[in-house]
Specification:
Chain lengths: ~325, ~675
């Protein structure tokens, strides 16, 4: 029984792959919309049959008319359901980041030329995100995805469904956006590690000035991905555009975080410790570098650097699940 | 070492939200059409449940516990079981479904419950159609269905307002009508698949027995009894005696039709009433309103053209009346040929003669005495009859709808003392005198006359046209109709109820307001006749549409396609015209529903974004309109100028404080700019 089921599922997946190949952008049409009566729709059909029999047995034309009207409404409802779905466009960024064992929201951009209703978005075995209305224009829907273990995960197909207009039909589609979630190690607290932290300081020669630290340095143009805390709000309010306040710090206290310097623990725990340390450094704005077995990331500060380090942790000793080179950083939502 | 956090459980179903007041309103109007069919205690339960729900919605009362609901439903079922015999199976089932409908509302927890309620609601609405089928009722039902759809839709698009939902569901129903009509015309109409319990409503109309005063009280009703459409010649008004029941048995107070259940099995209904097919004949179609009785109507001598219709099994009775073996529970029609000049039963059997001379001993001694005196005076039957009729005109007899009460229905008392009565008083006394004088005679009830509707060319016969007359058997002539009313109130048989009688009728009738009362006001009467004509066409074409008509209709269409030589081009033209106009209406409605949607600057901007995306320009999420404009001027110089103008208009519309005049100006410019860009994008 189970094998039949799984083989059917495989077949269906192959069919989907052929018919609806992966892309970052999808537009719904009769090529990729499925529509079938819902449970309610099936019982509604049964009710129509009962009403028809009632009308036949009583030779009552009005009851027959009522059953025909209900049948026609079923048909019209189907068309409405379909048109509620068709011509909607979706775009999903191919790269998303998050920590292990938590729900991360995957932002989906929806474009529509008219108002749409009752949309549900769900990744397989995940929580559903429901939108009662998708207004005309552009909307961003955050769809929860449970990150699970550390590593690189493909989100799989996104099921988008709607039961508008009467709930008689479920109209759905399974879209493959080829979206890869880079899952960092789990975010946990290792308070005892702070002491180790202190012993990792290294003297660096020269008087390079590195961004970060507590002393105010200069204002420069905002770069995507930088923390909101660093935006110069006053200047923004004055209409000077989005600027970033940088702080300068002597590079006298650069830290190297290394896998080898951690106390003995399973590798996953060690990575979690590193994750904690990286975040800790990021919070304090201290420049830090990362050394894994064969990877070494030069000391620096800032969001981009932190993400680079965390991604290295995520990919550490993991087979690469990505099909596309990861170079797109813009437009992703990252929880720090 | 460390506890891993477990993945939280997933709930797959999206919680359902709906407007509680809409649900309550829906329940109210779904039960409303059944209000006449439900018992008072059921109505009490329904009202209480709906009021309770309103209380819950207002947070005055708490939700009843499961036990409470169980107690309510069990007590309802017990009440039903106790009343089951009186109610009949169909009515019991309708009570049951209504009960479950109102009680189910207390346990709305999830989607499934909501769907069940909606479905039960639809059943309740449809069930009401078993009892009433007029066009107005049908329209009301359609409206109720629209409300139900509104409720259903409001669950799936909760952001819209109720009026929007109402409009949308109305549009959907209108869009569904062409297919409905198509199915109705084409889908095969089957004969009943199995026996169903028939509606056991209160019987109306003429019954198989009559006492003095019965017809007078029936005549107070303005209800429609039946309609007739003649094919060809229409008889004059005073020939429109619609025979319904013939009563040959008199027990001293009441006349009864000879009828017992064994008669059907004994095949005594076999056609043995003689008639001749020579002479004038009249053809017509009768559509009867449901009476829940078996009597049908026809002009003498009525012969039905088709004995079995989908709803009727008609027999010709020996007394020349028409009888359906099934009670009339819905509007039904049959077609009749009447041989108006044919004599009835020229030869009478001994059995029949004895039966029509029988009188109970000492029932009305003074009348018997009078009859015997007359018999001595006149040996000729016709002379005797004329003398009796003459008495009615010469003496101070009064024709009234509100005669004084008689003790024991004594005909003596009427004839000699009160001298005031309606048709059945006169017919009854006359028949009695005839029998006492040795002339075979019997009572006939039916309807007299009818109102012609010029808008649709048919006659309406109302209950107030109910009439009773007499029949005497004369040697060589057979049964001959004698109507004493013609002697006492000739106006009645010439034109119908006189103005005085109508005034009386309006005074004593306790039925609700009816337009029929206002027939003397020209414009109201025209309006009423128009409405009735509409209802007539509805009854004829929709309620009366059956497999025969379907067959004929489809055959007609197929034939016209087959033999293109004989195509009824006009018919085809009408069909095309109808279909195209439907299409145009549909298209217009779509257009209108789009046009009505107010679009603001943001809407236009979003539309343009969609257009741009089709063109290949994509707006990154975090781009401001200004940034996008810069990007476009870089990547698509051909669009740059117009887009910069568009962006400038858009931002000023969105963020600048503008007077409404300025806003309108800029908005028009924005629209123009959008049009230009739209063209350029192509």
């Amino acid at each position: 029984m189970n094998t039949i089921r799984s083989s059917l599922e495989q077949r269906f997946n192959r069919f989907l792959k052929k018919r609806m190949p992966a892309a970052s952008h999808h537009r719904l049409s009769n090529r990729n919309i499925f529509i079938l009566p819902s449970k309610f729709g099936v019982s509604y059909l049964f009710a129509i049959l009962v009403i028809f029999l009632l009308g036949t047995n009583y030779q009552n034309n009005l009851i027959l008319l009522a059953s025909y009207l209900f049948a026609s409404l079923f048909f019209t409802g189907m068309l409405y359901s379909f048109f509620n779905m068709s011509k909607v466009e979706f775009q999903l960024t191919s790269q998303v980041y998050g920590y292990a064992n938590q729900y991360i929201s995957v932002p989906l951009k929806v474009l529509t030329g008219k108002d749409r209703y009752d949309f549900s978005f769900v990744f397989k075995n995940n929580k559903t995100s429901h939108k009662a209305e998708l207004p005309i224009g552009e909307t961003v829907v955050n769809i929860p995805f449970y990150s699970g273990k550390r590593g690189l995960h493909n989100t799989g197909r996104l099921k988008i469904s709607s039961e508008y207009i009467f709930g008689l039909f479920t109209c759905w589609t399974n879209l493959d956006f080829d979206c890869v979630v880079t899952t960092y190690p789990e975010k946990r607290k290792f308070n005892q590690l702070q002491f180790i932290n202190a012993s990792q300081h290294e003297e660096v020669n020269g008087s390079n000035i590195v961004e970060g630290g507590d002393d105010f340095g200069e204002l420069r143009e905002y770069r995507t991905g930088e923390s909101n805390a660093q935006i110069a709000w006053k200047q923004l309010a004055r209409g000077q555009g989005r600027l970033t306040k940088t702080t300068q710090q002597e590079l006298g206290s650069t830290i190297w975080l290394s896998l080898d310097d951690l106390p003995a623990a399973p590798i996953e725990t060690k990575l979690e410790m590193l994750c904690f340390l990286i975040l800790d450094q990021h919070k304090h704005g201290t420049p830090f570098g990362l050394k894994l077995r064969n990877i070494s990331i030069e000391p620096a500060v800032g969001n981009a650097h932190t993400h680079q380090c965390l991604s290295a942790l995520a990919k550490y000793q993991q087979p690469s699940a990505t099909k596309q080179p990861e170079n797109k950083v813009s437009g992703t939502k990252v929880h720090v | 070492m460390f506890k891993r956090s477990k993945k939280p459980k997933i709930t797959t179903q999206v919680a359902i939200t709906y407007n509680v007041w809409l649900v309550i309103f829906c329940q109210l109007i779904n039960v409303l059409p059944l209000i006449l069919e439900l018992k008072w205690w059921m109505l009490l339960i329904v009202t209480a449940c709906i009021a309770w729900q309103a209380g819950i919605a207002k947070k005055i009362i708490r939700k009843p516990s499961t036990i409470m609901v169980a107690v309510l439903s069990i007590s309802g079922c017990v009440l039903l079981a106790l009343n089951g015999r009186e109610l009949g199976l169909l009515s019991t089932m309708i009570h049951l479904i209504t009960l479950s409908y109102v009680l189910k509302a207390f346990e709305q927890r999830n989607r499934g419950d909501f769907y069940q309620i909606t479905m039960l609601g639809l059943f309740v609405v449809v069930a009401s159609v078993i009892f009433q089928q007029s066009i107005y009722f049908a329209l009301a039902i359609v409206f109720i269905i629209i409300i139900n759809l509104t409720l259903l839709m409001s669950v799936f698009s909760p952001t819209l307002t109720i009026s929007k939902h109402l409009k949308r569901s109305g549009i959907i129903v209108v869009q569904s009508i062409p297919l409905t009509v198509f199915l109705f015309i084409v889908f095969p109409i089957l004969s009943p698949l199995w026996e169903v319990p028939i509606a056991k409503s209160a019987k109306t109309g003429l019954s198989s027995s009559v006492e003095v005063g019965d017809i007078a009280s029936l005549a107070l009703s303005d209800e429609l009894a039946f309609r007739v459409e003649f094919k060809g010649a229409v008889p004059v008004y005073n020939d429109l005696y619609w025979r319904a029941v013939v009563m040959e048995n008199f027990n001293g107070t009441a006349w009864k039709a000879g009828l017992d259940s064994t008669e059907f099995q004994n095949r005594r209904f076999k056609e043995n009433a003689t008639y001749s097919t020579s002479g004038k004949l009249v053809q017509y179609q009768v559509i009867v309103s449901p009476t829940y009785r078996n009597w049908l109507y026809g002009l003498d001598v009525a012969r039905v053209n088709q004995m079995e219709t989908p709803t009727l099994k008609i027999v010709h009775r020996q007394d020349y009346s028409l009888y359906s073996l099934q009670p009339l529970t819905q509007n039904s029609s049959y077609s009749v040929t009447s041989y108006v000049e044919s004599p009835m039963a020229v030869n009478i059997t001994d059995h029949s003669e004895r039966k029509n001379l029988a009188l109970p001993l000492n029932s009305n001694p003074r009348l018997t005495e009078k009859a015997q005196a007359l018999r001595k005076q006149y040996s000729n039957n016709e002379e005797l009859i004329n003398e009796v009729l003459a008495t009615f005109t010469q003496e101070s007899y009064r024709y009234t709808l509100n005669p004084p009460q008689l003790t024991n229905n004594s005909l003596d008392e009427f004839y000699f003392d009160t001298k005031a009565g309606f048709c059945e008083h006169y017919a009854s006394s006359f028949t009695y005198i005839m029998r006492a004088a040795g002339i075979p005679a019997r009572m006939v009830t039916g309807y007299m006359g009818g109102e012609f509707n010029p808008n649709a060319g048919y006659f309406s016969i109302y209950q107030r046209d109910a009439h009773a007359w007499s029949e005497v058997w004369l040697r060589g002539k057979g049964w001959v109709r004698v109507d004493p009313t013609a002697a006492i109130n000739p106006e009645r048989v010439e034109r119908g109820l006189s103005q005085e009688l109508l005034t009386e009728q309006a005074t004593f009738s306790d039925s609700a307001f009816s337009l029929l009362r206002l027939s003397n006001i020209q414009i109201i009467n025209m309006f009423r006749l128009q409405l009735e004509a509409l209802d007539y066409e509805w009854t004829r074409w929709v309620i009366g549409y059956n497999s025969d008509k379907q067959h004929a209709f489809l055959k007609d269409i197929i034939q016209s396609f087959k033999a293109l030589k004989h195509v009824k081009w006009l018919t085809v033209f009408y069909w095309l015209l109808g279909l195209t106009s439907l299409l145009i209406i549909w298209w217009l409605m779509r257009k209108l529903s789009h046009a009505n949607k107010p679009i603001d600057a943001n809407g236009i901007y979003q539309l343009l974004l969609i257009k741009l995306q089709q063109h290949g320009v994509e707006k990154p999420l975090n781009f401001t309109p200004y940034q996008l404009s810069k990007k476009i001027s870089k990547d698509y110089p051909e669009l740059s100028k117009e887009f910069a103008r568009f962006t400038q208009l858009y931002t000023s519309l969105m963020y600048k404080p503008l007077t409404s005049n300025e806003y309108q100006q800029k908005f028009t410019l924005l629209k123009q700019s959008y049009q230009i860009l739209n063209k350029q994008c192509k």
